[in-house]
């Protein structure tokens, strides 16, 4: 597409790969907060989003896992469920799921062909071209509203909330998992500012479930919920939860809500997953109690037990013991460190990591460095990657205060070579972990699981 005139320079969309290439070619238009382009695009389609029931999920960490719990439990209870998430781990079609299955390639092509001329029309207005994420969001809405008709759509925000493209919908319930320091260049650099952006998904009269903990974030969410006349279900107030059992196969959560108490087993590891599961449970309890959703307790139990989410403390089959975890911000690193201490306290830790450019990596290292024996710094195959040598400078600065005395640091920009080193360095009694940006996790996971159709991206 010509940026100045808005005229198409793309070839016709003949194949699935043409369609994905066209959508990804909109990436240079960047992240442009605001709803005007998506509203115009959807109005040209007859506002199909108005016919769907959404569960809107925002938060700094835990969005994907929360969506996985909600999807699994609802499906187990007999509902047809659409799930829209990002970024994807394996393939572009991962974003658009119906009952746990990716959108078929030919369906994506059909919908992209339908959107293509309308995107061009919007690009010719003063609003400029829709972004990649805006087109993906419109495609998801078209898929759910006009192709597969789910009973409910689990709808993950892209970034923030208030001005995020996904906020074009009015959900039946909103969920805010937590607030942390991420995307501060766009969302603000205080907890209150970030909380204000996330609280932007709270709609008039629509109930909201939240697990936020910081007093200033709680205050923001309370005020917005009150202003919108939305009932707030806040962890620690309207519901509580605790991890009552943990082992290498999973954990058990005790949930105490306003309507009943439940014990639920989780296969997903890490104490933070208890929080995500509790938020999902509270969400389902509100749907059950007030919106006539029918869910048997044993179906809920099974749904939570079966829920899985790629790249979140995910154990790779085989030897040596390797775990993939997309922790890429300070809060994620803290959760990862806690999970390692809880489950593998006696093992030497060989950590491979790569990041995108961002200013909070020092805080990330402060959480994880005290546990690391060998650190392999690498670079994701992505345009905004952080130079591995820069990461090393950061670590050297922190080494005296945070690192083990004999910390071994290896800089290997090629992630493939770094992965070979990780496997080589991780002995049978050690723990190997790959962490950092999901762009790195996506490539490593595809390599380890021998997935040939990996595309990975935003």
UniProtKB/TrEMBL annotation:
Any idea where the Mur ligase central domain is?
Answer: 57-283
Keyword ATP-binding in annotation: yes
| InterPro entries named in the record | Folylpolyglutamate_synth (IPR001645), Mur-like_cat_sf (IPR036565), Mur_ligase_C (IPR004101), Mur_ligase_C_dom_sf (IPR036615), Mur_ligase_cen (IPR013221)
- Ranges where the Mur ligase C-terminal domain occurs: 311-437
Give EC number(s), comma-separated: 6.3.2.17
GO MF terms listed in the record are: ligase activity
Q: Which reaction does it catalyse?
A: (6S)-5,6,7,8-tetrahydrofolyl-(gamma-L-Glu)(n) + L-glutamate + ATP = (6S)-5,6,7,8-tetrahydrofolyl-(gamma-L-Glu)(n+1) + ADP + phosphate + H(+)
Q: What class of enzyme is it?
A: ligase
- Pfam families in the record: Mur_ligase_C, Mur_ligase_M
The UniProt keywords, alphabetically, are:
ATP-binding, Ligase, Magnesium, Metal-binding, Nucleotide-binding
Asked if Metal-binding is a keyword of the record, the answer is: yes
- Which branch of life, at top level? Bacteria
> Which protein family is it in?
Belongs to the folylpolyglutamate synthase family.
Instruction: Show the NCBIfam families listed in the entry.
Output: folC
How is this protein named in the record?
tetrahydrofolate synthase
Q: Which organism is it from?
A: Paenibacillus shunpengii
């Amino acid at each position: 597409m010509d940026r100045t005139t808005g005229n198409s320079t793309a070839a016709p969309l003949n194949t699935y790969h043409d369609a994905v290439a066209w959508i990804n070619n909109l990436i240079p238009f960047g992240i442009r907060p605001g709803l005007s382009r998506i509203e115009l695009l959807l109005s040209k389609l007859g506002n199909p989003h108005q016919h769907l029931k959404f569960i809107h999920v925002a938060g700094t960490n835990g969005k994907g896992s929360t969506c996985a719990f909600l999807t699994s439990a609802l499906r187990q209870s007999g509902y047809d469920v659409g799930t829209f998430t990002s970024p994807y781990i394996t393939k572009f079609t991962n974003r658009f799921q119906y009952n746990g299955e990716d959108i078929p390639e030919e369906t994506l092509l059909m919908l992209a062909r339908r959107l293509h001329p309308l995107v061009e029309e919007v690009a010719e207005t003063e609003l400029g071209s829709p972004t990649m994420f805006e087109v993906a969001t419109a495609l998801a809405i078209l898929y759910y509203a006009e192709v597969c008709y789910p009973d409910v759509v689990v709808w993950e925000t892209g970034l923030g909330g208030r001005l995020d493209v996904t906020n074009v919908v009015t959900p039946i319930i909103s969920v805010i998992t937590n607030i942390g320091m991420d995307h501060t260049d766009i969302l603000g650099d205080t907890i209150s500012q970030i909380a204000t952006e996330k609280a932007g998904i709270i709609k008039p009269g629509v109930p909201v479930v939240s697990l936020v903990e910081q007093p200033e974030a709680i205050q923001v969410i309370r005020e917005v919920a009150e202003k919108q006349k939305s009932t707030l279900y806040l962890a620690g107030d309207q519901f509580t939860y605790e991890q009552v059992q943990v082992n290498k196969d999973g954990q058990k959560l005790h949930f105490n809500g306003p309507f009943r108490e439940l014990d639920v087993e989780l296969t997903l590891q890490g104490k933070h997953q208890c929080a995500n599961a509790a938020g999902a449970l509270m969400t389902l309890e509100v749907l059950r109690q007030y919106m006539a959703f029918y869910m048997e307790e044993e179906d809920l139990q099974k749904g939570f037990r079966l829920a899985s989410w790629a790249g979140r403390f995910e154990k790779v089959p085989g030897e040596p013991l390797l775990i993939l975890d997309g922790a890429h911000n300070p809060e994620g690193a803290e959760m990862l460190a806690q999970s390692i201490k809880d489950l593998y306290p006696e093992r030497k830790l060989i950590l491979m990591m790569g990041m995108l450019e961002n200013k909070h990596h020092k805080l990330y290292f402060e959480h994880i460095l005290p546990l690391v024996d060998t650190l392999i710094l690498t670079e994701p195959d992505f345009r905004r990657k952080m130079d591995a040598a820069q990461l090393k400078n950061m670590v050297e600065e922190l080494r005296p205060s945070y690192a083990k005395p004999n910390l071994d640091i290896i800089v290997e920009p090629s992630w493939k070579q770094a992965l070979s080193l990780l496997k080589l360095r991780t002995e049978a009694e050690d723990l190997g972990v790959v962490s950092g940006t999901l762009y790195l996790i996506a490539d490593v996971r595809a390599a380890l699981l021998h997935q040939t159709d990996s595309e990975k991206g935003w």
